[in-house]
Design a protein that fits this description.
40% helix, seven-stranded mixed sheet, Spore Coat Polysaccharide Biosynthesis Protein SpsA, Chain A, alpha/beta
Length: 312
């Protein structure tokens, strides 16, 4: 295997060295692509030092040296990658020694385009732990409940399988054939400053054949701290609902371009509409919700139904 690992870097001076060192332990990794996104801290200098210490570490910035977000940074990394396989890592996370164990076996099957695994959680600050648990309700392992593969992965992520799919999986635990990405022409949505990774995973699971690897133990660790963007947003607040609307709207616009099963398309449309309604204010919110419920009563049974009680 020849693997390119892409790491977007922003405000990661405390963590990036550990992240890079965790990647360099693997002989299969031919390059570590750092995309520095105009960090206000000392990240750029540290990245430059890392390139001097190890020739496999390559550093890039956006052409205008500006800040464009993790999605655009990963897209730049994809453009620069030369490996047969692509893996990702957040700058405040790190790989464990078993990171690519499943891939070595599963990619022998030519049908498999990508492999996903479980990741664990490390709390780097007490405040980060409190904020994360209050928003995510996931104490340690982020994984799926059974070895899903193929179309069931996409349907499982949408919550449309007969079996309980599990929590999720993240980019840190995903390895994908570069040829598969090139064939489906999938990129990260640069307009999404949050949830662009989830947006990418949902679309990828539909366009490519993914297979579960190691799901009962972590292959990487995510670091939770005070500055995590996802922990700073209070669940079901106006900001949370706005971010969720943008995420589901991205999927909704994409779903009109591909041939989804009717229940999958309807589910995406329902979630998009639910968060769109949650952003309305006062009396117009009530009227809009009632009108939507008349057209489709299922909107009252979504797990997001209680968002309408906030900030009326």
């Amino acid at each position: 295997m020849k693997i390119s690992v892409i790491i977007p870097v922003y405000n990661a001076e405390k963590y990036i060295t550990k992240a890079v060192e965790s990647v360099l332990q693997f002989d299969e990794v031919i390059e570590v692509i750092l995309v520095e996104d105009q960090s206000p801290d000392d990240s750029l200098r540290i990245c430059q030092q890392l390139t001097l210490k190890e020739k496999r570490v390559k550093l890039f910035q956006h052409p205008d040296k500006g800040n464009h977000g993790a999605g655009a940074s990963r897209n730049l990394g994809l453009e620069k990658a030369s490996g047969e396989f692509i893996a990702f890592l957040d700058a405040d996370d790190y790989y464990l020694p078993n990171r690519f164990e499943a891939e070595k076996k599963l990619f022998n099957n030519p049908k498999v385009d990508g492999v996903f695994n479980a990741i664990g959680t490390e709390y780097l600050t007490e405040k980060g732990k409190e904020e994360f648990l209050s928003n995510i309700n996931d104490e340690y392992l982020l994984t799926v409940n059974y070895p899903a593969e193929g179309p069931e992965v996409f349907r499982g992520l949408l919550g449309l399988t007969s079996k309980r799919f599990g929590s999720f999986f993240t980019l840190d635990a995903l390895t994908i054939k570069k040829s598969a990405l090139d064939a489906c022409k999938l990129k990260f949505n640069p307009q999404l400053r949050l949830h662009q990774d989830s947006d990418f995973i949902f679309k990828l699971s539909y366009l490519c054949y993914l297979k579960a690897g190691i799901i009962d133990q972590p292959v990487a660790m995510r670091g939770m701290h005070d500055d995590n963007r996802i922990t700073k947003i209070v669940k079901y607040s106006s900001q949370y609902n706005q971010r969720q609307f943008l995420f589901w709207n991205s999927l909704y616009e994409w779903s009109g371009k591909v041939k989804l099963d009717s229940d999958a398309a309807q589910h995406i449309a329902l979630q998009k509409k639910a968060f769109e309604l949650s952003l309305k204010k006062g009396f117009s919110k009530t009227v809009s919700l009632l009108a939507a419920a008349v057209r489709n009563p299922n909107i009252l049974r979504t797990k997001y139904r209680f968002t309408y009680s906030h900030e009326a």
